[in-house]
Amino acid sequence: MSAATDSSVNGSAVTTGPIEGSAKAYAPTESGLQVPVRRIALTNGEHFDVYDTSGPYTDSDADIDVHNGLYPLRRGWSSEHRTQLEWARDGVVTPEMEFIAVREGVTAEFVRSEVASGRAVIPVSRKHPEAEPMIIGKNFLVKVNANLGNSAVTSSVEEEVEKMVWATRWGADTIMDLSTGKRIHETREWILRNSPVPVGTVPIYQALEKVDGEPEKLTWELYRDTIIEQCEQGVDYMTVHAGVLLRYVPLTAQRVTGIVSRGGSIMAAWCLAHHRESFLYTRFSELCEILRSYDVTFSLGDGLRPGSIADANDRAQFAELETLGELTHIARDHGVQVMIEGPGHVPMDKIKENVELEEKLCGEAPFYTLGPLATDIAPAYDHITSAIGAAEIARHGTAMLCYVTPKEHLGLPNRDDVKTGVITYKIAAHSADLAKGHPRAQERDDALSKARFEFRWIDQFNLSLDPDTARAYHDETLPAEPAKTAHFCSMCGPKFCSMRITQDIRAYAEEHGLSSVEAIEEGMREKSEEFSSRGGRVYLPVAE
Ligand code: SF4
Q: Quick one: which residues bind [4Fe-4S] cluster (predicted)?
């Protein structure tokens, strides 16, 4: 049973309460900042702390009112209008960096140096003080983004706030509000004031709404005003498809799936209609100055990303990446933090090249990839096809993974799809953390493996990414309480439980003063004698 409850405030319900088997705790930094952790209580009297993205919603003591928004934790942390990149370059450790150091288990100086080099970004706008600081960079834990947002056809503002709470509950490190329907501004305001994690947007979507969906009517002035509107609200990072150049558009003509990025297709349509480079490219320096004044991070969009396996790593994709590299250096010169968005659909053998090229062209700016999907043949399972690619690309250095839900290519995800997508991507991210040797990653695996081997079922559930489902699957066949300490489950049954047999071998060895190998040999010898003494027959008559 989940510990979650619905906190209903003036008719707006969001999920509150700790995840089963855990409680919110806070780890202090040197200067006394309180860094949240999720503390899992174990049945052997120990506890295990894990990185916590869920904000106050999982704190039993928190007073949640979605109409008031979250407490503005970071208000007053930085009085001067400078970006995290500028502070880092000047050798200053900001409170955000101090907070992140405790969260990631590294030194504050390491955080500062990674930000100064541009290898990592801290995407927290000055206008979003409710957000808890986090970092995106290849030398930190791999992060997961969840996309939300109502479309023109379905879903309400309240539902989107709940999806944000729900996604962060299960581990989303950032969320992107991709609303395209009516009430875009209002939806974003609700999400921002209630979000404990950074919020990203694609401002061209809202700009397009303002010109009734006709890309050729977009202007720099209208786009600039939209950017400022969103910066004022507190958006932390923005996808800008400034790398879609006029001369790249024909490169997509022979593709199987053309241009699949919404932002990419809007800008391509604009370039063709006006027959000149887009205002995102020609006004990029002005854009940098606006983002710098709020410390909003660029997420340079891959408008020409491949939308199918056939189009992976083609000339259009890599031509745009070269331009994103050029823009990265311009943004950094303005003191603006930058990350780079990546594909898409890429077969396994072509994934590594994407990371290597991105790092080379974009000065190791954090790579932020959608999947990639490693095959196109499994609609309804694209959370899995993409998690395969995501684990691989993260292993090679991608810093943040944009989740994919089972509804990808099919419809707008509901609450269950959001959870499935987040958990699937936490698996991909954590697998990459393990492969990269992140110091804290294996500790959780070891704790769970130990609980599993010792048949501490409750600890095994609670240490898992999704305790509710792990418990439900176990209880489907063995619901009785004594089964929570039983030395088997219904998969192999009591007689064939290999872990119980291993434990028996170890107990036998201890009892007879033997090593495990000797004990196995001894046990085999006893069984062999027993077999011979019964006539050496493989099949025994039923009566025996
Ligand atoms: S019965 Fe099989 S699956 Fe279940 S705990 Fe034992 S070895 Fe593991």
A: 489, 492, 497
